[in-house]
């Protein structure tokens, strides 16, 4: 029976140590589509077995991942993960594999993230960039098991097509099993990408984990076990609690709390409907966006020069390119449009926030999203638009003609 979260004694009181295992596999042998598989690792595991494991080791919840191999039926395995969640909604957090049902799985069926294995799944990043953008627009994380070499470049290739995608690099990108090989190099290479995290599963080198935390920061590391891999690989030497104990010994209770639970919780909450979410605009958003613009005050409309732009904006939205929206509980509360310029620059055409939702930091979130996607930026503002001028200055834009009486030109070289 589940004994509840661990308690750690600390001077002056008791800290409740909640544990979320961010890397556990579920699946049945029947999901294999061939009689003789070339997958040398056995990751088959029932959800009842995982619940028993959780109860025995005081684990609160786990992220449930399908078996990530091209010879295992993704739909059957995804359905099984969802079945586990439906049976134990307080214990399992369901992630799916990528297939033609990805949009439905993320936006209708309740999957909270995606697992991609670049070694054992047949996935060409460039050819399948639309899947990456579906994940990015759903505001859910992607756990990536990278190939053996050049892991930083593999993550950067994904970010090229989905720059605001939250990525968790499985196993810290370690090379050989249960070693810290390549962990520090990966951390150094990925440090500048604030939306890239790592999990600790099958690293087996506590000093490498400590070094990774020092490089990336404590907020970008999450605990994972890769169960049942270790049980099958280490056999009689396997102890699920061993990694938990090492992490508890190596970090302060406050640090351990972040690694074991709060970091992954903060990642997952971004897909909650009451959280500000930003995504590409769809043609079905056109009426809502135009309604947002029509409701602006006359001064805002003048600053945006909407009289001359409305038909162009609607046309651009319908083309499903260059436009982005911020939404809360399905309501569009912000709109942003950009357009390409020479020398890899992007011009920020408009950024608009519903007046009822101003002062909540939505414009800041939208412009950060924009800067992740486009690193060299330009903007034009009416000289009287003090709010927009303040936003641009606060985000690294420099005025090329600051004393212009009517239109001020801005530039930001994010490189």
Strand count, sense and barrel status of the largest sheet are: 8 strands, parallel
Radius of gyration, in Å, reads: 23 Å
The parts where pLDDT drops under 50 for at least 5 residues are 1-5
Helical content class: 25-40%
- Average of the residue pLDDT scores: 94
Q: How much of the polypeptide forms β-strand, as a percent range? A: 15-25%
Secondary structure tally, helices? 15
- For the record, give the distance between the C-alpha atoms at the N and C termini, rounded to a whole number: 54 Å
Structural class: alpha/beta
- What form results from the Cα inertia axes? elongated
The total of beta strands comes to 17
Strand order of the largest sheet: 3-4-5-6-7-8-9-10
Short description:
The protein has helices spanning 47-56, 74-87, 102-107, 129-137, 151-161, 183-190, 206-216, 229-234, 241-250, 253-268, 286-294, 298-304, 310-318, 362-373, 386-394; strands at residues 6-10, 13-17, 20-25, 61-65, 92-96, 113-117, 142-145, 167-169, 196-199, 221-222, 277-280, 323-328, 331-341, 345-353, 376-382, 398-399, 407-413. With 415 residues, the protein is an alpha/beta fold.
Keywords:
single chain; 415 residues; eight-stranded parallel sheet; seven-stranded mixed sheet
Report on this structure.
The protein is of the alpha/beta class and 415 residues long. It has 15 helices and 17 strands. Strands 3-4-5-6-7-8-9-10 form an eight-stranded parallel sheet. Strand 9, helix 7 (206-216) and strand 10 (221-222) form a beta-alpha-beta unit. Helix 11 runs antiparallel to helix 13. It is elongated. Mean pLDDT is 94; it is low at 1-5.
